[in-house]
From TrEMBL:
Source organism superkingdom: Bacteria
Single annotated GO MF: FAD binding
SMART domains recorded: BLUF
Any one Pfam family match given in the protein's UniProt record, by short name: BLUF
BLUF domain mapped to chain residues: 48-140
Entry-linked InterPro entries: Acylphosphatase-like_dom_sf, BLUF_domain
Protein name: BLUF domain-containing protein
Length: 192
């Protein structure tokens, strides 16, 4: 799908070659310049996609489960250039914004839906979006102490969220509102 990406571990170069040879076949069939077709493929897959969902943890995520999940997620997300924000509340709810190329966002989301560690996934917002709000992978927790050192992610405490969200997504008031209302009970509680 993404001919401009070369990433040996994920094998996306092979996809690239398939796309280019399809483009050449298409071009010769219609007697047009093959680089125009390749260019069309490039530009048609460029736009970004975003998806916000919420779900419920099947079991409480303790100091062991959460680091495992974050390690797994952040490494995959880095490889496929999916960024965004994962929120986990002390009452066992998740909200996650995924941003990236559409195919990657949907593939990650499909795996999350199948993951028995959470249930009742519900998409709150999705669609094309012109630019990422998060250029990195971010996790919002009531207590960031559980996050292992050295992972390719940034962790923020709930009380840092209002500031962060208004900075990174100033043109997305609806998104900011949804994310903040998700953690709202914990924003006003001094324990968190
Ligand atoms: C709440 C929640 C959020 C998750 N977020 C991600 C994510 O952002 N990226 C990711 O690759 N996996 C994420 N996962 C893990 C995937 O569901 C899945 O376990 C992982 O991608 C490995 O999938 P596989 O065993 O099918 O290869 C998440 C899981 C849960 C429960």
């Amino acid at each position: 799908m993404y001919p401009f990406v070369y990433n040996p571990p994920t094998g996306r170069y092979a996809t690239c070659l398939r796309q280019v040879s399809n483009a050449q076949r298409f071009a010769s069939q219609y007697n047009i310049c093959s680089s125009c077709v390749v260019y069309l493929i490039f530009t048609s897959v460029m736009p970004l996609y975003h998806l916000l969902y919420q779900s419920y943890a099947s079991e409480e995520f303790t100091g062991r489960e959460l680091p495992t999940l974050l390690r797994q997620s952040s490494l995959v997300n880095q490889a496929v250039e999916v960024t965004g924000l994962l929120l986990y509340t002390p009452d066992g709810r998740f909200a996650q914004l995924l941003e990236g190329r559409k195919q990657h966002v949907l593939e990650v989301y499909e795996r999350i839906v199948r993951d028995s560690r959470n249930h009742t996934c519900e998409v709150l917002m999705e669609g094309p979006w012109s630019k990422r709000s998060f250029s990195y992978w971010c996790v919002g927790l009531s207590d960031c102490a559980v996050v292992p050192e050295g992972l390719p992610l940034t962790c923020v405490n709930f009380r840092q969220l209002p500031d962060l969200l208004t900075k990174v997504a100033p043109t997305r008031p609806m998104l900011v509102h949804r994310l903040l209302s998700f953690v709202e009970p914990f924003l006003t509680n001094p324990t968190y």
